[in-house]
Amino acid sequence: MAEEREQWGRQLEFILTMIGYAVGLGNVWRFPYLCFQNGGGAFLIPYVICLVLLGIPMFALECAFGQYGGKGPLSIWSINPTFKGLGISMVVAAALIFIYYDVIIAWGLRFLVASFTTDLPWVECHDCSCLLYNQKNVTSELVETLRYNNSLNIPCPNISINGSTSSPSELFFSKEILNDSGSIEEAGEIQWQLLIANGVAYAIVFLVLLKGIQSLGKVVYFTATFPYVLLTILLVRSAMLDGAYEGVIYYLTPRWERLADASMPNALGDVGDNCNYKHMFIIVIFIVPFSYCFLIIYYLPRDAFMIPIINCLTSFYAGFVVFCTLGHMAKIKNVDIDDVTKGGPGLAFIVYPEAIASMPVSTLWAILFFFMLCILGFSTQCYVLTNTLRVISVEDHF
């Protein structure tokens, strides 16, 4: 007799779980940066076209494929054995996502723990390379003085007027959090604090999923909704900062000439490597989470349209939080917003911490921001692991 499969307590629990899976860290650091980098409001035109023509249809198609076949990704390709390896690769991709997502969550936990202090640890300069950071009207006399008479009380003979400088938040991330060895050829030592944070992240996911989807269905009421509460709180606070309006205008103002530009940064946010505008499709694939085997398991026609739209609207909403903050940073530094923006993890773990440090009651905002990042990571992580295990364990009971 076939084993009876677990069922969601309510349809709402399933919808919230899917939203938790779809809405993740990329909504905070990928979409706003890409929108800013590629024409502001003008970026939304090809993006919405690709979402309608590719994102939503592919999302619905994968769901419908699983519903029609009545099987999971490992066995559904009996419809065409030539593609059997595709189902296996989807499960492997999901497993890899689980591993790297846990690492990013560990970073967020480290920052969260480090935030529980009166003076945030990434505010003060503790390295020669940041002595001249944000210094205005740097003269050769000032440089000569700082070489041997500075707040670090150590000699810094290599600093110069035209030399590169790093922000304290950048140094905290690279040296304190990652302890970057500088080269992939040098493995470096085990980072015990990150290792413990990684273990804690795994343990939290295990406890959430201890009773399967029955416990997950209850947890998502919090994990899928609370990030929106925190985003709203951060948006209200960021909108009150000096320079926030300029940041929003920079974010939304269409730069129509970018629509005629055949090149743009790729979906990973690498500004150095340009590619054709056809890679807008890749951006949609990154943001609308299909092809990871999970959608084959479930299908509700309404959700296939609703979840991608919620996902993309969340990305757009998060952009206001990000660029209100970046506008404030540009104001206090008296530079263009171009000079304070970084893509990818740098936006979440370097730029935003530096901006938070300049806010009143900075400890509170740091705790809220990194708590939100952790919740976003955990909501995706729990869904990924739950359905990877379900794909493997109940494959024969569809």
Automatic annotation (TrEMBL):
Membrane topology summary: Multi-pass membrane protein
Gene giving rise to this polypeptide: LOC101861663
Compartments, record wording: Membrane
Domain of life of the organism encoding this protein: Eukaryota
Chief location of this protein within or outside the cell: membrane
Listed PANTHER family: SODIUM-DEPENDENT NUTRIENT AMINO ACID TRANSPORTER 1-RELATED, SODIUM/CHLORIDE DEPENDENT TRANSPORTER
Family indicated by similarity: Belongs to the sodium:neurotransmitter symporter (SNF) (TC 2.A.22) family.
PROSITE patterns documented for this protein: NA_NEUROTRAN_SYMP_1 (PS00610), NA_NEUROTRAN_SYMP_3 (PS50267)
Keyword annotations of the record: Glycoprotein, Membrane, Symport, Transmembrane, Transmembrane helix, Transport
Protein name: Transporter
Listed InterPro entries: Na/ntran_symport, SNS_sf
Transmembrane stretches, start-end: 12-31, 43-65, 86-109, 190-210, 219-240, 280-300, 307-330, 364-385
Record Pfam families: SNF
